[in-house]
Amino acid sequence: MSINEAHKIKLMYGLAGGALGWGVSPHFRCASLLVAPKFLGKEGRLYLLTYVLAAIYDGPIANIRHNLDEVIRSVGCTVELQINHSRQIWKVSTAPLRAMLRDMVRGGRTLNAETRNVSQAFAGLNEQVASEAGYGGKRPRRAQGRQAPSTQQEYEQKTKLRCQREYFSAQLVVKV
User: Region (Disordered): which ranges (predicted)?
Assistant: First the structure.
């Protein structure tokens, strides 16, 4: 049994005090002899049980309690680290998307301005497609049951009709 130095000193003082008490005092001898049967009775067993429970509580149970406190602290720290790590991962993984959305919001004004410029650039062409001038009353018609022609198809047809009108006008001038 390994006993540390402080306990060895206390044990030595206790044995020396007991030997001195036995050697000097008859009352000490009588009291110590009467204590032995008392430990064998109900009160003695209760005292020994209390002493054993105190030793168990002070030893292994205190160690288990200390270990549980450390486990709780460790789990709490681990959970906090995971939360912080997850927050950092979320920020890093969504940074490109947030930057792209920020750029889209900034570029929205530029896109609107460019759209207006394109609309203004094609305004003349739209007017030309919508106008009926230049082809001798022959309006492009769609056949029943068919879809309306696209703007491109309508423009091509009007251009062909205008060209035919010019062609016929040029032939009339030449024949005269």
Answer: 133-156
